[in-house]
Each structure stands twice: as structure tokens, then as C-alpha cells.
Design brief:
Blueprint (H helix, E strand, L loop, with lengths): L2 H27 L6 H8 L3 H7 L3 H24 L4 H11 L5 H17 L3 H27 L9 H21 L6 H13 L4
Length: 200
């Protein structure tokens, strides 16, 4: 590895460290009360260190959200390895649910950012990009199932991809607002029930 490559990696690692500190503050304090100063305190550094890596709070949150989104897609693909049919789709969708405590923290930040985006069109556009990518990802899985005649031929692929996203969004938001609303078992059941309704 060259010195330049090492420097780039160190920079990215430090950005991730700062973003993780921001994540913890948001989970604990909420997005509105999260400031560059609070993040610096969480990190045990000066505000100057934080602003060196991110020009403002929005840039930092977008970076953190992108990392989580990338991890979800990677985890969905990894979970699907070795699986086929409806079981494969079910496993992939369940990966995005707040089944564990760490997942609930991610959902808290996701929901907080959705609210924060209202009235900030550039942030709405960023969210839309992520939903578009997720829709394409799920649509491809549904298309494969339809080609294999494992789900009904009359299904509107885009509509059903949106429905699955809406189901996950609804469950995730519900768990953020009321943690006891859906147990992990109930979350899986709701996804399974919906996917089974598509079966050929």
C-alpha cells in the first residue's frame, strides 16, 4: 500500500469515527439537539477536528446514513446467499427490519432524518435516491420470482416493491414510536404473510 493510499484510508476511517460519534449523539439526544460541539464532546475532540472532516451537520448525517444504507444492501445480499424462491425474498426484507436493539438505533436516526428533511428539498432528494435504489433492488428479486413462476403473473412489480418498502417503513416507524408494538416474531410474520399473498 502506498503512502497516499494509507492517507486516504486513514482519512476515511477518521470520518467514519466522527460519523459514529454523531450517530450516538442523535440516538441519545435527537437530531435537533445534535450539534457539532456535542459531537466533538462525544468524540473527545475539538469542534475543529469535527469540521475538518465534515463542513456541517447535514454533511455528516448524510455520510452516516449512506454507510447504514450500504450496509443494509450488503447484508440483504449476504442473507440471500444459498436461498431461493420466496424464502430468499423474505430473508432479504427481514434484514431491513428493527429486529435487534442495534437495528432500532439505526431506525431512530432514519426516522429523525426523515422529519429533518421536510422543507429541505436537497435532503428529500437524497432520501429519494436511496428509496429508488432499494426499489430497483427489490423489483429485480420480484422479477426473478415472476420469471420462475413462483409469484403471480398479474402482479405489478413496481407496486409490490413499493408495498414491501412501505411495510418495512411502517413497522420500523412503529417500533421507533412504540418499541413494544411489534416483537421480532411479529415483524417476521407480517412480512411472511405479505410475501405469501404474492405466491403463485
Amino acid at each position: 500500500m502506498s503512502a497516499d493510499d494509507s492517507s486516504v484510508r486513514t482519512q476515511r476511517d477518521r470520518r467514519i469515527e466522527v460519523a459514529n460519534a454523531a450517530w450516538r449523539v442523535i440516538v441519545r439526544e435527537g437530531l435537533d439537539r445534535t450539534s457539532m460541539r456535542a459531537i466533538a464532546q462525544e468524540l473527545g475532540a475539538t469542534t475543529g477536528v469535527v469540521t475538518h472532516y465534515f463542513r456541517d451537520k447535514e454533511a455528516m448525517i448524510l455520510f452516516a446514513l449512506e454507510r447504514v444504507f450500504e450496509h443494509v444492501l450488503v447484508d440483504m445480499q449476504a442473507a440471500a446467499q444459498g436461498l431461493t424462491g420466496l424464502a430468499r425474498l423474505e430473508k432479504m426484507i427481514c434484514i431491513a427490519l428493527p429486529l435487534k436493539m442495534s437495528d432500532k438505533d439505526d431506525w431512530k436516526v432514519w426516522v429523525a432524518f426523515l422529519g429533518y428533511s421536510i422543507g429541505r428539498e436537497h435532503l428529500v432528494i437524497e432520501h429519494r435516491k436511496r428509496y429508488d435504489l432499494l426499489r430497483q433492488f427489490i423489483s429485480q428479486e420480484l422479477t426473478n420470482l415472476q420469471t420462475a413462476k413462483l409469484i403471480r403473473a398479474d402482479i405489478d412489480i413496481t407496486l409490490e416493491a413499493n408495498a414491501l418498502i412501505a411495510l418495512v417503513d411502517g413497522i420500523g416507524t412503529g417500533v421507533v414510536i412504540c418499541p413494544d408494538q411489534f416483537s421480532a416474531k411479529q415483524q417476521r410474520y407480517l412480512v411472511q404473510r405479505h410475501i405469501n399473498s404474492l405466491s403463485a
